[in-house]
Amino acid sequence: MAQAVLGALDESKAEEIVVIDLNGKTSIADMMVIATGRSTTQISSLADRVLKAIKEAGGPTPAVEGQPANDWVLIDAGDIIVHLFRPEVRQFYNLEKMWGVDRPGERRIDD
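The structure corresponding to this sequence follows.
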């Protein structure tokens, strides 16, 4: 399912995709994916593509928050949590710093 989510984000031109391994950090999920969209319209499109990819991969029906505003959309698919942000909202929340993205095992997927 992770590859399906990452593929959907890449195909939809998401920017600054970061994957954070949550194993050993929390029990809420195994992986967090953070990505940026340039506008609320792109964030909505990214969310739709990720939801479709999760469904096609046989994943659970995710919980979704943040629509229809689309400044920040959270998709909780159980083992994978996806955060989609507009650039200024992402900078404000700075989840990478909170979850320690610079620790060994984390990776940034540059566009």
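The radius of gyration is 13 Å.
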